[in-house]
Amino acid sequence: MDSRDWDDRYAASELVWGTAPNQWVVRELTGHAPGHALDLAAGEGRNAIWLAARGWEVTGLDFSAVALERAERLTADLPDEVADRLTWRHGDARALEAPAAGYDLVLIAYLQLPAGDRRTALRRAARALAPGGTLLVVGHDLSNLTEGVGGPQDPAVLFTPEDVLADLADLGLHTVRAERVHRTVGGEPGHGGGGGVAVDALVRLERPAD
To answer: pTM score, two decimals?
Structure first.
């Protein structure tokens, strides 16, 4: 799907993904010392807003202008001290240009791309990390096609934890976690299906501190 396809999808319904943060983002980042974060493919901003509420300075980037309009509207309803920590940018994760200082956290949640594009986006994300920074990647696992519910049904845009590690193998990152995780789906917004268990790929990596 290109940016216009995603604009159409977001325009067709109110809050495609809902407002609650992803459960794996919550599990992995609760208690993490806040810093500067980048949420790639931020969508309507649910994860970025959750991070900002916990003290992070967050840049949310997405290539859907409609999604970012939704994120800005949600931001307007937040307390000033949270809203002031959020910045929304229109752009493509595959063409990310990170600031020289880098980010303490780069989050990629459910960015489902063909393998070549995924590798490009992941490597740009990894290079955007500051020393000691964390890269958290969550997405629909390839095994979800046969063992789970919801999510894209095109194997070309699904991936495994092993795929992520292979994409980033030469960049010197430390693997904290690389696993398949099971998420209960109860007709959740945006994920399809009327209930069941979805299989996600979760990879958490860290750039060594200088």
So the answer is: 0.89
